Amino acid sequence: MSTLYATLADTLRTRIEQGFYRPGDRLPSVRALSLEHDVSLSTVQQAYRQLEDLGLAAPRPKSGYFVPTGRQAPALPAVSRTAQRPLDISQWEQVVELIRSVPRDDVVQLGRGSPDLSSPTLRPLLRALGRISQRQDLRGLNYDSIYGTETLREQVARLMLDSGCRLAPSDLLITTGCHEALSVSLRALCQPGDVVALDSPSFHGVMQTLKGLGIKALELPTDPQHGISLPALEMALEQWPIKAIQLTPTCNNPLGYTMPDANKRALLQLAQRFDVAIIEDDVYGDLAYRYPRPRTIKSYDEDGRVLLCSSFSKTLAPGLRIGWLAPGRYLEQALHMKYIGTGATATQPQLALAEFIAGGHYEPHVRRLRAQYQRNRDLMIDWVTRYFPAGTRASAPQGGFMLWIELPEGFDTLRLNRYLLPKGVQIAVGSIFSASGKYRNCLRMNYALKATDTIEQAVRLVGETIKELESQ
């Protein structure tokens, strides 16, 4: 009997966690489940009691069982207020503080942009790497084409069909991560002193690439649900000599929004009207919680002005350092920048990835992680609601594994991080996501790892330290 009710409870728990039943939904009746699973009424009742103990089911008199709605989610962050002019980028010192740290068992790194690497669905990739390293033909140790191995480009082109893109292998360059794809794109398009329009807050890696290239950033107001303000972008294009628009419109980092399809099409039309390029970062696109995954701006592109950048760093493993770029009409410029930068990308991980994808392992892995990240998002928001001060605002990510948190004006997350590090917790401070050091009262936290008491206690420590600093 215990095995039957535990199995049934586990089935219902999985359905709830994967979103088949949402908060507030009525769960199947005891009688319906008894018939569906061919078990007794008492077995179903025991299963529901177990779900009650887990906080996943709540009885209502004469109405049955429902998925609890939980605490009220915090308000979303405010629409960003940005400078009205292009700016030189600062904040390098704060970025170095984040990226120079290496994974340590005694530090809970809530600030880094790494996915969960513990999933058993990565084992076929490890086996593929092992097989390729043992081959006697030494192909994995040699240079391959500057474009990247053809087998991997074929697999990437196939994967991109899910985003609405119809690309040939010859349309793609394999890069050393998405970061290089973004850097190659900027160098292919811009010269020192040029202006690039950005959503704000924006990925700190792009900010620092602009800084290194002597390019100015024009940050634009960005809504935490719908993305960059199109009226503000239109005004900026009329006023400034913008060379390119760079943004992450799907499962944005750090805000987590996905731009509606209508906005993506409208943004492309603006770029066509003013004849500027779009650099689209889609590195989190495959981690969207809804299916089918959202379309890219590139999928609407008919004149080759969108340079699509992505990688396997967020879906599989950042240490592979394998990304790709679909540069459209800018292929020759991008190829030149790739050549004078890193040259050909490492061959061995490309071969292993191609084998992993061709073997049918990529989709099940990403499907598993999407479900995990969505569950973790809800837990993280619940913990922030529980442990952070009243009035804290938090994003509602539609994919990926990053949560953006906004504290009252005047709060200093740089100071917060200095207090947290000796206690074994690290966050990403908000100021590194802005050209001018805005968002000092904000922070970003990673919720990729499997939820444990250790992570909950780390989030609790962040909240308690915020309260302590506010009271000083």
UniProtKB/TrEMBL annotation:
InterPro entries: Aminotransferase_I/II_large, HTH_trans_reg/aminotransferase, PyrdxlP-dep_Trfase, PyrdxlP-dep_Trfase_major, PyrdxlP-dep_Trfase_small, Tscrpt_reg_HTH_GntR, WH-like_DNA-bd_sf, WH_DNA-bd_sf. The keyword Transferase applies. SMART domains: HTH_GNTR. In the C-terminal section; belongs to the class-I pyridoxal-phosphate-dependent aminotransferase family. GO terms for molecular function: DNA binding; DNA-binding transcription factor activity; pyridoxal phosphate binding; transaminase activity. This is PLP-dependent aminotransferase family protein. Keywords: Aminotransferase, DNA-binding, Pyridoxal phosphate, Transcription, Transcription regulation, Transferase. It comes from Pseudomonas mangiferae. Transmembrane segments: none annotated. It holds the Pfam family Aminotran_1_2.
